[in-house]
Specification:
By secondary structure, the protein is mainly alpha-helical. It has helices at residues 7-18, 23-32, 42-55, 76-86, 98-104, 111-142, 150-178, 191-202, and strands at residues 21-22, 58-63, 69-74. The chain folds into two domains: 7-86, Arc Repressor Mutant, subunit A; 98-202. Helix content is 62%, strand content 7%. Strands 1-3-2 form a three-stranded antiparallel beta sheet. A hairpin with a 5-residue loop joins strand 2 (58-63) and strand 3. Helix 5 (98-104) packs antiparallel against helix 6 (111-142).
């Protein structure tokens, strides 16, 4: 029995709504788009394509003779299901960053452990940002593969860039804070920490 469609199902279906894809090309396109804010493994994407066909939301057509490949196309039923899903309320945003988990549990390790986790998180984020810069440069220079969709992609790119900057800045601020600690336990609220918490409840977004 095919499981109920998930947000990932509709993410893949939405890519098919842009144009038909082979599985290989869809995975490649997902690395330019979904990967940045809805990461899923190649195996997951391949499996999702098969489930879309089982639900009747997509059709699979084998092309070629010697080097065969399967191209997936959205069906009218699939487009209707996608439009129906787009009318629903999105799930609440979630955040999953192991570096923040390490901070929450920081009093069970050492300052060196905490420092290393923060430095690694910032370095990883800078690396991801650097990997995305050529894609943004390509959008500016050529419009990318779908220039007619740049009004949407620009919003996603700018969110991701702002998030990168926020996380890197937070890591640097937290690294500076822990340099004033004598350890990771029994420190309590510092004067600088109090100012930051007051800012949280007084500043409007």
């Amino acid at each position: 029995m095919t499981p109920r469609p998930t947000a990932s199902s509709f993410a893949v279906l939405g890519l098919l709504g842009v144009q038909p894809w082979t599985a290989y090309d869809l995975v490649a396109q997902s690395k330019r788009s979904l990967h940045w804010f809805w990461p899923r493994s190649e195996r997951h994407l391949y499996a999702e394509l098969k489930r879309l066909v089982e639900r009747g939301h997509a059709e699979a057509h084998v092309e070629g003779r010697r080097r065969q490949r399967t191209r997936y196309t959205i069906t009218p039923g699939g487009r209707a299901a996608l439009q129906e899903w787009l009318h629903t309320e999105p799930a609440p945003p979630t955040l999953e960053i192991e570096g923040l988990l390490r901070v929450m549990l920081g009093d069970q390790g050492t300052v060196d452990d905490l420092r290393a986790a923060l430095e690694t998180t910032a370095r990883q984020r800078r690396k991801l940002r650097a990997e995305g810069i050529p894609l943004v440069a390509d959008l500016l220079a050529t419009g990318g593969p779908f220039p007619q969709r740049l009004h949407l992609n620009e919003r996603l790119v700018c969110f991701y860039a702002d998030f990168d900057n926020l996380l890197i800045q937070w890591c640097e601020e937290t690294l500076a804070e822990i340099e004033t600690w004598h350890g990771t336990q029994d420190i309590g609220l510092t004067p600088r920490g109090r100012k930051r918490l007051v800012r949280v409840i007084t500043e409007e977004p």
